[in-house]
């Protein structure tokens, strides 16, 4: 577990959980704070990727209810493009599991496409 995640877990377990149980308004504020922290951690990860790798690399995965899966890779050099693409990805109505993962260049998918037994899959 990364130090950031350990710190967030410790704060949550020792302070937030006991207080949350007592106060619904606090529960809502804490949920917003946790979301903001996660967004902050993601933004830091994006900037690190731009500085260290020269781009933001993303692997995506989606699987429908028939077991057909799609894997794609994306490269972004602009934060706005990244956030627009991520928003579009999560607006899709997925029938099964799906993921959007920021990766290092060396972990970028080598092969992408649609795989499985389904309509129009060859």
Which bin fits the share of residues in helices?
Answer: 40-55%
Order of helices and strands: HHEEHEE
**Rg over alpha carbons:** 18 Å
Content-based structural category:
alpha+beta
**In terms of per-residue confidence, which ranges show pLDDT below 50 for 5 or more consecutive residues?**
none
Overall shape: globular
**Whole-Å distance between the termini?**
41 Å
Assembly category: single chain
SS summary, helix count: 3
Number of strands: 4
Let me know the average pLDDT: 83
Strand order of the largest sheet: 3-1-2-4
The major pleated sheet works out as: 4 strands, antiparallel
**Tally of separate domains:** 2
Record the SSE blueprint.
Blueprint: H1 3-20, H2 24-53, E1 56-63, E2 69-76, H3 79-91, E3 98-103, E4 113-115
Helix pairs in contact: 1-2
């Amino acid at each position: 577990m990364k130090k950031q995640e350990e710190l967030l877990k410790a704060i949550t377990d020792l302070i937030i959980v006991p207080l949350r149980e007592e106060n619904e308004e606090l529960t809502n504020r804490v949920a917003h704070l946790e979301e903001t922290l996660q967004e902050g951690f993601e933004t830091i990860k994006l900037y690190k990727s731009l500085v260290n790798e020269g781009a933001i690399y993303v692997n995506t995965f989606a699987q429908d209810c028939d077991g057909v899966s799609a894997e794609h890779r994306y490269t972004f050099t602009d934060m706005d493009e990244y956030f627009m693409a991520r928003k579009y990805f999560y607006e899709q109505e997925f029938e099964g599991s799906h993921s959007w993962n920021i990766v290092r260049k060396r972990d970028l998918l080598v092969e992408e496409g649609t795989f499985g037994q389904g309509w129009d899959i060859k």
